[in-house]
Amino acid sequence: MAEKEQVAPIMDHPSSYEGNTSIHPQRNYQRKFINSCVCLLVFLLLLAIVIIVLIFTIFSVKEPIIRMNSVKVTKLELANNMSLIANVSVKNPNFASFRYSNTTTTLYYYGIMVGEAKGPSGRAKARHTISMNVTVELITKDMISSPNLSADLGSRLLNVTSFSRVPGQVKILKLFKKHVVVKMNCTMSFNITTQGIQEQDCKSKVKL
């Protein structure tokens, strides 16, 4: 009998293609990770830009503007007393409300304090202007003792200076609070005949 031919067994060798199949998922994972990091960095950059814009626009606290619109003499009796009603307005240029309290107005006659008044508390809405009336009772005995009174009476003008202080706070999104103090100095000339302001010069200062 013829001898049977011996057939060598075929050994399974991994192909180069099969060997690369374990590398592709790793590369895909790395690619996805890099893309995710880039997207996150872009998002954080855009968020930072938005926050910076908000800080310099909406979230920035602007100075409230205080003005003395008019002063009316309600009682003019130098022998007894003198009463004034000052109309003061507060303009809030912010995108948030401005709450104020303990408004104080003091009147001086040639450097001597002759009257003081407390104003009511209130709230100025965002980008709105409100006004309030403040009644001031003058101490006329201090005015009568001034050597400048006779000259003012002769010219029919009383030269008076006033100082107003309005403390408050600006509240943004009910989260951020910024304390603000508005101060204003005014130099006024009251016409004794018409009982009104003839001249007025006001300068304000805001402390944030």
Automatic annotation (TrEMBL):
Q: Has keyword Acetylation?
A: no
Give a yes or no for keyword Cell membrane in this entry.
no
Q: Which residues form the Late embryogenesis abundant protein LEA-2 subgroup domain?
A: 88-187
Please indicate which superkingdom the organism of origin belongs to: Eukaryota
Q: Where are the transmembrane segments?
A: 33-59
Q: Which UniProt keywords apply?
A: Membrane, Transmembrane, Transmembrane helix
**What InterPro entries does this protein's entry cite?**
Lea14-like_2, LEA_2
The record ties this protein, via Gene3D superfamilies, to: 2.60.40.1820
- Which Pfam family, giving just one, matches this sequence? LEA_2
Q: What is this protein called?
A: Putative Late embryogenesis abundant protein, LEA-14
